[in-house]
Amino acid sequence: MSKERVLSGMRPTGRLHLGNYLGALKNWQQMQEDYECFFFVADWHALTTDYANTEEIRSNIREMLIDWLAVGIDPEKATIFIQSGIPDHAVLHVLLSMITPIPWLERCPTYKEQQQQLTGRDLSTYGFLGYPVLQSADILIYKAHKVPVGIDQLPHLELTREIGRRFNHLYEEVFPEPQAIHTEILKLPGTDGRKMSKSYNNCIYLSDSPDTIWEKIRTMMTDPQRKRRNDPGDPELSPVYAYHKIFSSEEEIAEVAEGCRTAGIGCIDCKKILSENMIRRLAPIHEKRAVLMEHPEEIDAVLEKGTAAAGQVAASTMAEVRTAMKI
């Protein structure tokens, strides 16, 4: 391979929002220029917490892929595929589960955290306990050199390395140790100031129309100190200002910051500037989405081609695995 290989994936939860774009997809765009990239739809992973609610998975997959392609994930530069289309992921998962000690899984920080957070769901399943092993299979089967991860996912990547080392020690050297790739992650608050999340209903989606974007920005919370038009405020306390830092020019950022501190600009005027800039920036994505919505066969073709290509790589790795294990 002339380039190092990167692997990353997303669970299909439907339409993507600005947080998904700025936190992951923009980095994917850059990585596809510098690495051999494999980006996959993690539909089996969606079952680890939502196994009782599968009605929307197929439509969510399509919505997510539309957003990937609309923002510029290029099937000519990256391999785009679906996890469930390659049964070898499940085969390697089973084989790795045979050598993975249970305490390794129980110590994963997200295991207990999600059980505490998602109290309305029964997560006392092997699938939930063992999903880090499936995640390890996803990475190791492509012999990925780099995996883009956030801080909260670093323990999972370390577990992948441990499982790979254990396999190599028990049998023979097959898997390289994947390393974390640290990319710039822009964290964007939701319209209510909390973390942007579908569960909080505070997202601006890549598919939102200009009118919807303006309505969401118009009703965004601002600095609570500015109760009246003449009250000065602190721009750093306003989610609107956080958006300006991403979508507005340096001159506009300075203008709205000064205007907020001196009450020289009203919140609505500040929001209008932001709305115009955001709508302009997202216009090419909206245009590409409209074309893809009219031609779903293009999405199917991308997924079919990518899954076939990824399947060949996975099959090659599994041949090495079977030889090493003498099975």
How do the strands and helices of this protein lay out in sequence?
Layout: E1 5-10, H1 18-34, E2 36-41, H2 43-50, H3 57-71, E3 78-82, H4 88-97, H5 102-106, H6 109-117, H7 126-129, H8 131-140, E4 146-148, H9 154-170, E5 179-181, H10 210-218, H11 239-247, H12 250-262, H13 267-294, H14 296-325
Parallel strand pairs: 1-2, 2-3, 4-5
Helix pairs in contact: 3-13, 4-8, 8-9, 10-13, 11-13
Question: What would you say about this model in short?
Answer:
This protein is mainly α. The chain folds into 2 domains: 213 residues, Rossmann fold, CATH 3.40.50.620; 82 residues, Tyrosyl-Transfer RNA Synthetase (Orthogonal Bundle), CATH 1.10.240.10.
